[in-house]
Amino acid sequence: MAMQSDWRYCQKCHSMFYDGSADKGDCPVGAGHQAAGFNFALPFGLPGTPTAQDSWRYCQQCHAMFYDGYPDKGNCPAGGGHNAMGFPFVLPHDIPGTGTAQDSWRYCQKCNTMFYDGEPDKGVCSVGASAYQDSWRYCQKCQTMFYDGYPDKGNCPAGGGHNAAGFNFVLPHDIAATGTEQDSWRYCQKCHSIFYDGYPDKGRCSAGGGHQATGFNFALPHDIPTTPRAQDSWRYCQKCHAMFYDGDPGKGNCPAGGGHNAAGFNFVLAHDIGFTGHEAAGYNFVLPHDLPSTLDFDFNPIVFPPGVAVGGWSHLTLREDGSLTFTGQFHDSGSAEYDVSVVMAVKDSQNQVYQVTHTGHVAGTFESGSRDDPWSIDSRDDVVAANWANIAAGWKGNAQASASLDAVNLLNAVVGVLGIVLAVIALFLGGHSGNGGHAPATGSGG
Length: 446
Description:
The protein is mostly beta strands. The chain has four helices and 27 strands. It has three domains: 132 residues, no CATH class; 142 residues, no CATH class; 150 residues. The strands form eight sheets. A five-stranded mixed sheet has the order 26-23-22-25-27, covered by helices on one side.
């Protein structure tokens, strides 16, 4: 089937990502993506149309949906450009949203991913966010700055793991140092504190020996004005070489013994700030989600104008796997005989129409034969399965019947009611067919 489910909204960065594997990819906020909301089922392997754009791909590095139609592959939070893998997705845009199709999904012209633009908060873009890391916290036991982004809380000199309190600090890394930014601050993979790595002496680690650096090279601002989102009084401890908070009378617990001992700069560290958000450009994508597996269209009752003593009903069921059931009946309650026909049509979100037709005959009082013309057809057409995302996400139905065999003009009348139509597809009915005056009966499928 030409659609893939398990595409989700990441509530951390606001991008669309694939949630169908245990690995949640790389989120620009840090760690993996975190799913929320609808389960999107996205179409692939179809040709582009004026309201459906191709070249959308899964990035095997960060797991986000990105636009692969440019030589520039954008900015991946895992590093470098995005790396396409898997299906070529064809995503609908600039059509009405429905209960199973959400609009306000946009292309970010900074990072090339698909993000949700329906809220004032524009999420976190990997362009800009890639130079910052959050989840740095104050340990209320030892007063050092430690990284709280892992389940393991490291090794606190006061015993056990660190215990976070207060602000969520956001630290810049891998940028050029200036007169008010000092680099060579590193994460210690043994105790999880941040320490100064600019000396041959690596200080004293609470896990034993000196600190051991890994990961980013942080460049921390110092001796600048404070703001409501930037706290000062963070200092270098000349005994253990870790960063600690010096704004309290108590100086915490230093692994070198006693309290910490401040030296050097007065660091001013940002906290609880938003990263740079996505920046929308281009189409307004309308993406299908939580699609039903079955759709039913009913034309009941079929009523003709006065003087035509024929009535009836018809029903069409379409299914996600491409199977379909077309049933109905005409009945003649008068003296005249009639040739009869009915057309049922469904238009999808891409303005393609799928139609079924039945023609038959009912006898009147003065003719031998049956007054009834029943039918029940079970069939299958792969075109339904291939286009299910577009059908189920935004359909419009119409049906008309006629006391004649002029099914061609009847089909034209049905299609005319449906508005803009790019293609009309006659569904396969397993060998049953209708070829294709009195005024027609009309109705809307539903």
